[in-house]
Amino acid sequence: xxxxxxxxxxxxxxxxxxxxxxxxxxxxxxxxxxxxxxxxxxxxxxxxxxxxxxxxxxxxxxxxxxxxxxxxxxxxxxxxxxxxxxxxxxxxxxxxxxxxxxxxxxxxxxxxxxxxxxxxxxxxxxxxxxxxxxxxxxxxxxxxxxxxxxxxxxxxxxxxxxxxxxxxxxxxxxxxxxxxxxxxxxxxxxxxxxxxxxxxxxxxxxxxxxxxxxxxxxxxxxxxxxxxxxxxxxxxxxxxxxxxxxxxxxxxxxxxxxxxxxxxxxxxxxxxxxxxxxxxxxxxxxxxxxxxxxxxxxxxxxxxxxxxxxxxxxxxxxxxxxxxxxxxxxxxxxxxxxxxxxxxxxxxxxxxxxxxxxxxxxxxxxxxxxxxxxxxxxxxxxxxxxxxxxxxxxxxxxxxxxxxxxxxxxxxxxxxxxxxxxxxxxxxxxxxxxxxxxxxxxxxxxxxxxxxxxxxxxxxxxxxxxxxxxxxxxxxxxxxxxxxxxxxxxxxxxxxxxxxxxxxxxxxxxxxxxxxxxxxxxxxxxxxxxxxxxxxxxxxxxxxxxxxxxxxxxxxxxxxxxxxxxxxxxxxxxxxxxxxxxxxxxxxxxxxxxxxxxxxxxxxxxxxxxxxxxxxxxxxxxxxxxxxxxxxxxxxxxxxxxxxxxxxxxxxxxxxxxxxxxxxxxxxxxxxxxxxxxxxxxxxxxxxxxxx
Length: 692
Ligand code: FUL
Fold this sequence. Notes:
- By secondary structure, the chain is an alpha+beta fold.
- It folds into four domains: about 40-350, Glycosidases (TIM Barrel, Alpha-Beta Barrel), CATH 3.20.20; about 360-480, Jelly Rolls (Sandwich), CATH 2.60.120.260; about 490-555, Immunoglobulin-like (Sandwich); about 565-690, Jelly Rolls (Sandwich).
- The strands form eight sheets. An eight-stranded parallel beta sheet has the order 7-4-3-2-1-12-11-8, with helices on both faces. Strands 13, 14, 15, 16, 17, 18 and 19 form a seven-stranded antiparallel beta sheet that branches.
- Strand 3, helix 6 and strand 4 (about 180-185) form a beta-alpha-beta unit.
- Helix 4 (about 80-85) packs parallel to helix 5 (about 125-140), helix 6 (about 160-175) packs parallel to helix 7 (about 210-220) and helix 9 (about 300-310) packs across helix 10.
- It is globular and about 85 Å long.
- The chain starts with a helix and ends with a strand.
- The structure holds beta-L-fucopyranose.
- The site of beta-L-fucopyranose (FUL) has 8 residues, from loops.
């Protein structure tokens, strides 16, 4: 009898302990996000504003000697910026408190190169304060960008500068309330004004800034902050290796705490990394970061911005979208319109989650416990999740719509507080009695959204085909999002033939050559046409079935290049620099730098500027950073008409446009003085001129 009782108790204990074990949450796997990283990740979408003396000099990077007197934004209105960000669905704003030129948007005690000596508000203004106040008023979080590279400061490059930098950081992180993110830009072009020294100063970015002590200071002053840094020691957030608005489809929120971080690690993360360092996609709503009037018709279209949305937030990253501020101190109406239309598109795309009111079943549920069952992935609560027994690393979850349902988006979220686990998955649809794979992916992380052609199905099956440990899925969404036609691309070759194309399959095009907005009544495009002079081409793509039209594509072409020739070059490929095709690049080598490109325009023109498009390929070479530009009537006597740098060209290889006082000339010479790779190569995708 006693033995029986003992045995009963033992059995009861076994059953109890095993059922407890089965209903316990999984242990975290690998590195996990900090509370600050978690709060930041949930923001998903927030803004950058770029505003400084560059705004007044039409530059990308100031040299550090720009005149403070230029800074006088007569209608500066941080409330306008905040209102737009709020209406655009963003959760915060990061302001360029100090860009590379060293000019401070707040009256720093430690320098004279700030708003306190500018005519704006007679030196009484503080743009950082106005931004922080506007953020508070609009319920946005507030962040600061403080450039470590300072081309104005006399001590830059010496140890004293680090004290100056930390003093400024202390001002910014003490006097303006809560700061959600601090941005330490890694750019450093060497040359600068440096208090009048006008020289090149190179630093060792791994040691000079002593980041660990700076991070300590930051965290003491702002315990809830996240730190972004691509210039040195690993922080909380990482750059994704491009400013073009996308991160890898495979995107681990992990890196190693030490060692090199080559491009691939920035872009895809590190599967077995030892630290949680999430990805932030930073990109501008226009090609450049600062305002340039020449880009007023280059604001990104809504289809392009939606592409960015899917390639950032939809790839387990956040999106930091930049607004360049105009010289008057406001966001341009075209930028506002684009951001608000994008917000509407996001809202429409994810308005109805088709998993609502459906049922879900999983191939395995942890301990068969209801608190971990499939329903937890479709309960609109990201704090609950579906998970499996520890031993399971492949599993399926099936959603039953109960009726044929049309959809073209699949969204999944992992409960990342327990680590990022999923390595591969597929999505199948049940169509006409058969399972059919519609899409597949690799990592999920905080959020992954996949796009595919619309399918009508009664059930959807989500198969996790590889996971580091048991999967933990907090949310699944299925949507039928509106589809947008992309803006058509317009190019012109050397013969003057204009071609209109698009990435979409199916639409037709209409165009105008007189600046008018094209409609379906305009000229229909059927094949490349000749427009061999100064001409403005506008085009739309049009879908005959739905009558949907794309945003307007717009290009201004200057004089004909028909008679242009490159002097002293035998390489036949060289003429690709006039072919209007951004996929072809010609590389010119000389024994040493400088490398000269001399072009005969075939006739005399009144030239007032030139344009240079560098190599667009990922592993590009020969990107010119320092240049001189000359004109001549006979290739013997040359006149220097423009010189300087193509700032930020490596991270953002967009068209470089330089204007100068008009000159009548037949020959032009672009002299490459330095490039990003420190060798003797100059690469050109396209070269163009601007005539009066
Ligand atoms: C880059 C900078 O050099 C650009 O000017 C811009 O501020 C961008 C956000 O980061 O690296």
